[in-house]
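Consortium newsletter contribution from the modelling node. Members have asked for a concrete example of what our holo predictions look like. Here is one, prepared for the nickel (II) ion complex that several groups have been discussing at recent meetings.
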Amino acid sequence: MILPIYKMGSECLKIVSTEVEPDEFGSEPLDQLIQNMHETLIDSGGVGLAAPQIGVNKRILLIEYTGSKITRYSDIGDCALKVIINPKIEFIGNEYTAFNEGCLSLPNLRGEVIRPKALKYSYYDQFGKQHSGEDNAFFARVLQHELDHLDGILYPMRMHDISKLSYADII
Ligand code: NI
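And here is the predicted structure:
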C-alpha cells in the first residue's frame, strides 16, 4: 500500500524515533510496514525513505537506487534494496563533502549539505540479521540523511549556508 509522506512541519518528523525491539524482527506487522514503505519509496521516485516520513516513529529506513535511472545525480552506482533497522554509524577520517540534497518531505527543494565523507555502519535487517560495512560515496550520504530522520533532523537543519536552499525547478 502506498502511504502519504509527511512533510516538513509535521510532528512525526521532529521527534527521536524508538528502536525496533528484538521480538518485532520477522513479525507480520514489521513485514507489512516494510512492504508499505517499499511501495511508497518506489512510487515516490526517491532513493531512501525513513519510517517517520510515513508517520511511524521507529528506527527503520529503506535505501534503494539504480544510478543509471536517476538523472539528477551522476555516478552514484546502484544499491539493491536495503532494509536498515536500528542503524549505528561511526565516521572515518575527517574528510567532508558538499552535496545538493533533496528530501521527499520537502518536495521540489534542494540544499547543499556538508557531511562527513566516510563512515562505518551496522544495522539489522527485518529478520534480525546484523549487517555491517563501510562506505565513502553516495550510500554514506543517503544513510546519514535518512538516519537524521530517525533523530528528528531534516537536512536544512544541517545546512551551513541557507542561501543554498533552492527550488529544484528554477529557470
Ligand atoms: Ni529525507
